[in-house]
Amino acid sequence: MILRPTYLEKLDQLRDKQIIKVLTGVRRSGKSTLLELYQNKLLKEGVQPEQIQVFNFEDWGLTDLTDYQKLYEYINERLVHNKMNYIFIDEIQNVSHFEKAVDSLFIKKNVDLYITGSNAFMLSGELVTLLSGRYIEIPVYPFSFKEFIETEKNLSKSEALAHYLDRGGFPFATELKDNNTYLSYVQGIINTVLIKDILSRMQRGNATLLEAIAAFLTDASGSLINTNKITNTLMSNKLKTTNMTVISYLEKLVNSYLFYQCSRYDIAGKKYLQVNNKYYPVDPALRRALLGQKRPNMGSRLEGIVYLELKRRGYEVYVGRLGNKEIDFVAVKDGVREYYQVSLSLQDEKTYQREITPFLAIKDNYRKILLTQDPGNYNDNGIEQKNVIDWLLD
Model's pTM, two decimal places? Predict the structure, then answer.
């Protein structure tokens, strides 16, 4: 089992603090396993079993507790007085009005509360209003390359990267060596998200249309797109839709954590742009599951894992615009910016000049980093060129 120490350390930093720990992320990204690992850590450190209560609302055996009042009463009756109680609630969005139960538990001084959810709607509406300032979100992603390579110790680093770009990092999927079994598992994740997390929450939903939009986003990963382009493509494929329907489905795909929207940022004007975004799938595995054996654009796939790695490292990430030039990523953390360009190789001089030209137009002194699969690390007039494998494993 991969221990994922970054997440465990984050939970440990927040332990016993009066703030709700909310783990969010796509289904099967490892949220439940993280909570299980943390429970084991608590037991090893002397917490007694009766101080821990665990609920997973994907378990139909807990149907009676999906009413928030019954859930609260059940937990409250079993609290150990004069000791800290650790409450873990998995897939809490399946509890009606769960925010009321969470708020009532939060105000107790002897309750340390951990919850997970697979849909961003749980962090909207009443939850935000009722619990504003009382929770901290911890995004959980499928395995990073650094975590993935721990499962493929028989491969070289470059072989492992090729494998990762193809098969992705859903934790359980890394244990499935048979290609057909692996593919069925990933398709099952996608179908569950599309049907259970999206369509089941809509009065009238079109599964064929939703999957077609998901496939379009996967194929167009790394390209600037707008809703008109998606709508026209779908219509040309004999799928009736409208711009408003596409916008609604895009929002739901992002809220289910299956895709991430990367908005544009005007570097010179220091403002965010509202049109023409990029979308990246949560994991490279989505490509084969949604597009089959269609020939991949390896550059865009590499760009996608760099985007997700920046998100894992806590950056806000945008597409940079400077006049008619584009910077792959503007990454912002703690008020400090970094600029990234991603390319398979820069050994061709024309390619190198194309990639550094946008960097040369930037007038500030923030870091400018070129990530490629070329060996070695270089620094040319303040522009850092790094091997992407070294950077991913840093």
Answer: 0.94
